[in-house]
What does this fold into?
Amino acid sequence: MSLYLDSAASAPPTPDVIARMAEVERDLPANPSSAHQVGQRAARAIERTRGQLATHLSCEPDQVVFTGGATEANNLAIQGALKAAQRAASAGLHPRLAPGARPHVVASAVEHPSVRGLLRALAERRALDVDWLPVDREGRALPEELHRLLRPETVLVSVMHVNNEVGTTQPLARIGKVCRAHRVLFHSDATQSFMKLPTDVDALQVDLLTVGAHKLHGPKGVGALYVRPGVRLEPLIFGGGHEGGLRPGTLNTAAIAGFGAAIDGFTVPEAARVLGVARAMRAALLARFPGLQLWSPDPGGVGTILAVGLPPEAEGAPRRASQVAAALSRHGVQVSASAACCAGAEEISHVHAAMGLREEQARATLRISVGRGNTSDDVPRLIAALEQALDGPAGGRRLA
Ligand code: PMP
It folds into this structure.
């Protein structure tokens, strides 16, 4: 039987989520913008989820914009804010940016590729300047460094809430406070933290916040962006007036309703149970494998993402996590050698590099992530499979 330990890449939809999506596709097939009864019932299903998001973000429903996933929400936040800032600057209305000046953005050194890759691409095109906020050995951004990086042209700071490779939680409120004092917009990608940690947008002091459904067992391809009142964004795509004109296109009723069902299922006791399984795994790994290192802080992280530095071979040769992950997969255990979006990359993870891991340490790091499908029975199963994978021919293979 397969043991799935890759929920940080995607958490499998629960039966409730699948049933809700099927029910909506079947019973509410109309366009949710249609004025007739079925259309209006579909619209109500969407508004129910919007209300749930607003409750968990401690904001108003009309401050939540649905998107086609977290990648898109990150793009809308960053590109939308930049375009709006430039427009305001050219009218002489931006508090920091002079007309015609190139905007400057600060992001943490451990952002997801949907933030990091976007900023790098825009910087290459000379559409902006970017600086990376450094992190400590645990992957935590250093708010005191932000003061040094801010410039008169800085229009946006983007720091994720929980890192997807190591699970480290970022000090958002401290960063947000600095941003507010300087009248710089603050965006956070909370894809890995939503429903797992408190995400009150006022407490976190964010202006824009990204969430996604499939890291909490909802469907893929649906996410949302919180937009603080008064924050100006420009849309990235054009069409009808959906989502206040910020994200046009007929809304995916079934996916949004499935997002709502995933929120319903991720109750506080259930989140605590899942965290308990992850903590038991962490303790068992440390007890069973001398020399194994856990790069994920606990406390100080989401707890359900375990970045595991594999111990070297008996002769001291470093392990290669990609080979151990492949051996585990042959034994029916699905984990990642790095984030799914970076799998197969030649370069070591930028997150591991920013944390100061040496190349061989980064290459020996597995990501094990726990979700609602896991129970305490999975702890001995993981240990047994890892024993085999580390002893077996593939697990024992040396660094090329
Ligand atoms: N941000 C973070 C932190 C993530 O972990 C992910 C998913 N790996 C994303 C954004 C992008 O999510 P999606 O691929 O669903 O758009």
